[in-house]
Amino acid sequence: MDARITESSGDAAFDRSAENAVYSAAPFTELQSLPINVFNTNFRTLSLIFQPEDLLN
After folding, report:
1. CA 34, CA 20: separation in Å to the nearest integer?
2. What are the backbone dihedrals phi and psi of residue 53, each rounded to the nearest 5 degrees, phi first?
3. Max intra-chain CA distance, the chain
4. What is the C-alpha separation between 57 and 53, in angstroms, rounded?
5. With CB atoms counted within 10 Å of each terminal CB, which end of the chain scores lower, N or C?
6. First-last CA distance in the chain
7. Domain limits, the chain
8. What is the DSSP letter of 55?
9. Cα–Cα dist 11/18, whole Å
10. What is the pTM of this model?
């Protein structure tokens, strides 16, 4: 599918790293096994939030 940054962290390298992480995790096999109506209703658009401070935990 597609991944895109909707709100920049202000750090281009971190943004690129987060985007690459999503592409590296694909395909999301668990989502592929869902009935299409469940997928479309709940997962057609999926927002993931990556925050630089989470790397410190």
Report:
1. 25
2. -65, -20
3. 38
4. 8
5. C
6. 30
7. 12-56
8. G
9. 11
10. 0.68
Q: Which residue has the tokens 């694909």?
A: 26
Cβ contact 19:48 at 8 Å: no
pLDDT exceeds 90 at position 46: no
d(CA 26, CA 57): 24
Buried b (16+ CB within 10 A) or exposed e, 18-32: beeebeeeeeeeeee
* CA dihedral angle for residue 29, residue 33, residue 39, residue 43, rounded to 10 degrees: -20
* Residue pLDDT, tens place only, 3-39: 889 999 999 999 999 999 888 988 888 888 999 999 9
